[in-house]
């Protein structure tokens, strides 16, 4: 087996009564952009702090190029960090802030000036050396923090919700910058967020955290197309869930009875495929069709609302048994011109585009 660049092995962290991280194991390749995605309290930050050396794990190990980092203190781990609350030194200028990690490492003066300049160029803040952080916008300050984290060329960069204090437009702008910097420098990035859109935009792979464990690791496309658990399915992309009865199984596919008696065959079945007759069926809003005419293996619904969202139109529907299902159609889709609130209609979907969870 080839040795992983960065390896997180069986990490567990207990604070008194609270198990913050139950069991986290993953390998990260050199140059990879790995995001920890999950709801608040799922253990993402704790895992990152253990990597940074701010916390010791209760169990497990962290290896960089095959060598354990646990006995190396935080400041000697050669890991850059940008945190939401890891703010700049307010009394220092931008240049002095960025130079700080180099001074700690006793880099020669001439080299410091050059490296600070290059780091500020990387984050597009050339010429801001003498500015005080207080006189800069939130986005500019986070770019200075990024320059400071990267100035000594650490092989690994940790980022914990670095953009959560910024407004949406600025956030997207800096996401774009982070992607560019990742490509230009080739630094390995571990990034924490609870925002799925941000995770999808930035990452090579995403580790979905839930209750101190990883439910699934994969590219955004893999997680969307093939979610391993109900939780991942609900966390990546938009989703409708309805209850179903499993009435047959074959080769990882299920035959399901839906409320109202509709039978669908050939739905991919995930998680705990052994036994049990109850399942939850995931239907993506963008994979549903809508028509006035009856659809084979479709669901009879009533339109409860139609919302225009720019490029898309979201149609809210309700089945006779009370399930709410939303359908996303492209703006101008001909189905919409024939439908209004209160109308009866049929929802259709390809069995292959749905997912059943035991
Ligand atoms: N120092 C601590 N002492 C006690 N409990 C802690 C400590 N740090 C974290 N926890 C608990 O561990 C669990 C995981 O927290 P963690 O911050 O890692 O989650 P997270 O996924 O990063 O969430 P958030 O996005 O809210 O930061 C939470 O229940 C949290 O309350």
Automatic annotation (TrEMBL):
Keyword ATP-binding among record annotations: yes
Entry coiled-coil feature ranges: none
Matches recorded under Pfam families: ABC_tran, TOBE_2
GO molecular function annotation: ATP binding; ATP hydrolysis activity; transmembrane transporter activity
Domain ABC transporter: 6-236
One CC-aspect GO term: ATP-binding cassette (ABC) transporter complex
Gene Ontology BP, a term: putrescine transport
Keyword vocabulary terms for this entry: ATP-binding, Nucleotide-binding, Transport
UniProt similarity note: Belongs to the ABC transporter superfamily.
Protein name: Putative ABC-transporter ATP-binding protein
């Amino acid at each position: 087996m080839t040795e992983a660049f960065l390896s997180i092995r069986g990490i567990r962290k207990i604070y008194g009564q609270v198990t913050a991280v139950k069991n986290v194991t993953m390998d990260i390749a050199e140059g990879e952009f790995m995001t920890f995605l999950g709801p608040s309290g799922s253990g993402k930050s704790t895992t990152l702090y253990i990597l940074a050396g701010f916390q010791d794990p209760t169990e497990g190990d962290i290896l960089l190029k095959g060598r354990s980092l646990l006995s190396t203190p935080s400041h000697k781990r050669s890991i850059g960090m940008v945190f939401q609350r890891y703010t700049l030194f307010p009394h220092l200028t931008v240049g002095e802030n960025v130079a700080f990690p180099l001074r700690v490492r006793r880099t020669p003066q001439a080299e410091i000036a050059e490296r600070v300049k290059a780091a500020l160029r990387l984050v597009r803040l050339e010429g801001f050396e003498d500015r005080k952080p207080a006189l800069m916008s939130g986005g500019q300050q986070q770019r200075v923090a990024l320059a400071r984290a990267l100035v000594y060329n650490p092989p690994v960069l940790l980022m914990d919700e670095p953009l959560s204090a910024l407004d949406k437009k600025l956030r997207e702008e800096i996401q774009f910058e982070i992607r560019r910097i990742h490509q230009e420098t080739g630094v390995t990035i571990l990034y924490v967020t609870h925002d799925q859109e941000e995770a999808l935009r930035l990452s090579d792979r995403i580790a979905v955290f839930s209750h101190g464990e990883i439910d699934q690791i994969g590219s955004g496309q893999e997680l969307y197309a093939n979610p391993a658990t109900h939780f991942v399915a609900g966390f990546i992309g938009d989703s409708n869930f309805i209850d179903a009865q499993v009435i047959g199984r074959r080769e990882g596919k299920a035959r399901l009875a839906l409320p109202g008696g509709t039978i669908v065959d050939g739905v991919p079945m995930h998680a705990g495929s052994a036994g049990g007759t109850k399942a939850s069926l995931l239907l993506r809003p963008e994979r549903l069709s809508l028509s006035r005419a009856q659809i084979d293996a479709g669901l009879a619904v009533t339109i409860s609302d139609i919302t225009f969202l720019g490029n898309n139109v979201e149609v809210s529907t309700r089945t006779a048994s009370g399930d709410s299902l939303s359908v996303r159609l492209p703006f101008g889709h001909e189905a919409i011109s024939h439908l209004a609130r209160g109308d009866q209609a049929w929802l259709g979907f390809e069995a292959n585009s749905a997912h059943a969870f035991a």
